[in-house]
Write a structure and sequence with these properties.
CATH class of one domain in chain A: Alpha Beta
Oligomer: homodimer
CATH architecture of one domain in chain A: Roll
Distance between the termini of chain A: 50 Å
Strand content of chain A: 25-35%
Shape of chain A: globular
Number of helices of chain A: 1
Low-confidence stretches of chain A: none
Radius of gyration of chain A: 17 Å
Number of strands of chain A: 7
Largest interface: A-B, 63 and 64 residues
CATH superfamily of one domain in chain A: Phosphoribosyl-AMP cyclohydrolase
Order of helices and strands of chain A: EEHEEEEE
Strand order of the largest sheet of chain A: 2-1-6-5
């Protein structure tokens, strides 16, 4: 078993994982791994997660066919978040879209640029 | 105040946010927003987070100068994770690297491809 001592799992024993398509760079989904899921991901080349709703390990694609092949696994500066780059087979989202983020764009102000006046942060 | 009823905040009243550079597509960091931080992000064009360690709102860049200007905010299929695309000024990470994920690559098997034999998922 590989050791991954530097990963800071949260109080539920989980670490959030950002999953990115290696080719398109699209962020596909965010899922969670426990230590066993991470070890399996690192040692088998297939993305394995912990399903919080079902309470079990879940190898992406075993049911849907939409597997993820691991290309790179990076840990962030705090050690509490992972970024994995994958080769995605088919759509990543169970709704049938390529990314789980293809569903909704929130209305936002997007035309502020560096150099614009910065108002004070007014909290509620 | 804009309404964002479709966002499913967790039991701590937070939603994880994946932050991606609009140009390079590099994933820069993962942070958290409460409802107020999200409203401020959507209405001011600057990324505002909730600091879990300090227990306060945190407008990215107010201290470091490394501000994030919002370009797109997307919600995932479950409504419990956000993806924001930003124009990043300077490095996103407090350690001085462009991305918080520029720190560590974990050793992983990365040469498995579609069509390879799939062994059963052996759990501990």
């Amino acid at each position: 078993m590989t050791t991954t001592p530097e990963v800071a799992f949260n109080e539920q024993g989980l670490v959030p994982v950002v999953v990115q398509d290696e080719t398109s760079k699209r962020v596909l989904m965010v899922a969670y791994m426990n230590r066993e899921a991470l070890e399996l991901t690192l040692t088998t080349g297939r993305a394995v997660y912990w399903s919080r709703s079902r309470g079990e390990l879940w190898r992406k694609g075993d049911t849907s066919g939409n597997a993820q092949f691991v290309r790179r696994v990076e840990l962030d500066c705090d050690g509490d978040t992972l970024l994995i780059s994958v080769e995605q087979v088919g759509p990543a989202c169970h709704t049938g879209t390529m990314s789980c983020f293809d569903v909704a764009v929130l209305p936002a102000v997007t035309n502020v640029v560096p150099g614009d006046a910065v108002p004070p942060l007014v909290k509620e």
